[in-house]
Amino acid sequence: MLLSTLVILVFKLIGNKSILCQDDGEYNSVPPECTHECSKPTLTDMMVLTDDSSLKNDFPDGSKVTIECAYGFEADHGSDTITCTGGTWSDVELVCKKKDCGSPPTSPNLMYNMADGTLLGALIQPVCDEGYYLQGSSYRQCLPFGWSGNVECLLITCDKPTEILNGMITKRPDSELPKMDDVIEYTCNPGFKLIGNKSILCQDDGEYNSVPPVCTPIECQVPHVQFGVLKEKKSNYTHKSEAVFQCQSGYIMEGSPRIVCEEHGWSTLPVCIKESYRTTKKVTATTASTSTSTGSSSTTLGLKEMMPGPPPNSPDSPDLGYTLAVIGCIFFALVVCFCIVAIVRHHIKRKGSYDTGEALKTKEELLLKTPSNLTPI
Ligand SMILES: *[C@@H]1O[C@H](CO)[C@@H](O)[C@H](O)[C@H]1NC(C)=O
Ligand SMILES: *[C@@H]1O[C@H](CO)[C@@H](O)[C@H](O)[C@H]1NC(C)=O
C-alpha cells in the first residue's frame, strides 16, 4: 500500500506558551491560541515535493503543495497537488511508474537479451552475431538518464598472415585481414618440404589455430644397398640429386642403378643379387638345359634345389636323356656320401673316440663338401 501522507494532527500554539498572574490580579497576557496545521508531507520513494513546495516550512490549514515523480519515475496519471485540511493532507492522487528505457538503439550485428524488461533498473545483455566480438560493457542497465554503457560489435579478424621462408601463401582471403574461419594455405618452394600444418585457420578468438609451417630443404641420407657400391659418394643429397650404384663383383643388379632424391626420400633402390644364384634359378626354370656349362658351384646349388621332390617335367620332357643323367648324378652322389660316411665311422671306431656331436659335425661337413668334389660329371 502506498503511503501517501502521514496524518498527524498538529495544533500549533499561537501566542505566549505561558502566562503569569500579576500582583494586580491580572494575567500578563492572553492565553495562546491553538490552530490546526499540517506537518511536512511524507511521500513514497517514487515521489518528491516540487522545489517550490519543499522550501516551505509551515503548512497552515488550506495550504497546497505540489508533488512530482522522483528521478527515474514518470507520472502516469492523477493530480499532482495535495491540500492541508484540518491538519491532514488530502490523499495523493498522482501515480508514478518506473521509467521505461525502451529498446536500446540498434547497432549492426548486435542484439540484446532483454528478458529482464526495459524498466528502470533492468539489465540487458548485448549479444554479437557470429564472427563479431563485443566491444564495451557486457551488460547495460536502465538508469534514470537511460541505458548505461555503450557497446559495439566488431568483426573478428586475425593478424595479417606471416610469410614464410622458402615458401609462399597459396590461398588467402580477399580481405587484408582474415576473418573468423578464413583459411591460409602455404606451399613450399620446389626443393623444400613442408613441416607443420599446411593450412592455418583464423579462430573466433582472433588467433590462428596453429603457427605457420616451416619449409626445410629436401635432403636424402646417404643411400645404402646390400652388396652395392655407391659411385661418387656425397655427404648430403639435395632434392632431385642422383646417386648411382654398382654391385660388388659376383653380384648382379636388378632395378635401375640410378636413384633420385625425392621429397619423401630416395626413389626405388636397386638390389644386388648373387650372380650364381640368379643364374641357377634361371637354369632350373628352363629345365637346366645349360647347367653342364655353368661350372661346379652352380651344379652344387642346382642339385640342392632339385633335391626336394622330383620335378614334374617327365611326361613331356624334351630331353629325357638329360634327366636320366641328372638322376644318375644324384644316385652317384648319394653312393659316394654313403661310402664316405661309412669310412669315417669306421675310422672313428678304430680310433676309439665317442660318437659325439663332433662326429656328426664332421659328417655334415663332409656331406656338404662332397658334391663339389664331383666336378668330373
Ligand atoms: C597443427 O594444427 C593443430 C590444430 O589444428 C595443432 O593442434 C597442432 O599443434 C598444429 N601442428 C603444428 C606442428 O603446429
Ligand atoms: C652439402 O654438400 C655440399 C657440397 O656437395 C656442401 O656445400 C654443403 O655445405 C652440404 N650441406 C650440408 C648441410 O652438409
Mean pLDDT, as a whole number? 79
Instruction: Kindly report how far apart the N and C termini lie.
Output: 134 Å
Poorly predicted regions are 1-8, 283-318, 352-377
Helicity range of the residues?
10-25%
Detailed description of the structure:
The chain folds into 5 domains: 10-98, Complement Module, domain 1, CATH 2.10.70; 110-155, Ribbon (Complement Module, domain 1); 167-214, Ribbon (Complement Module, domain 1); 219-275, Complement Module, domain 1; 292-372. With 377 residues, the protein is α+β, with helices and mostly antiparallel strands. It is rod-shaped, with a radius of gyration of 58 Å. α2 (275-285) crosses α3 and α4 runs antiparallel to α5. It has 5 helices and 28 strands. Residues 1-8, 283-318 and 352-377 have low confidence and may be disordered.
Keywords:
Complement Module, domain 1; sushi; binds 2-acetamido-2-deoxy-beta-D-glucopyranose; single chain; repeat; alpha+beta; signal; four-stranded antiparallel sheet; 5 helices; disordered C terminus; 5 domains; Complement factor H-like; 377 residues; 31% strand
Summarize the structure.
With 377 residues, this protein is of the alpha+beta class. The chain contains five helices and 28 strands. It folds into five domains: 10-98, Complement Module, domain 1, CATH 2.10.70.10; 110-155, Complement Module, domain 1, CATH 2.10.70.10; 167-214, Complement Module, domain 1 (Ribbon); 219-275, Ribbon (Complement Module, domain 1), CATH 2.10.70; 292-372.
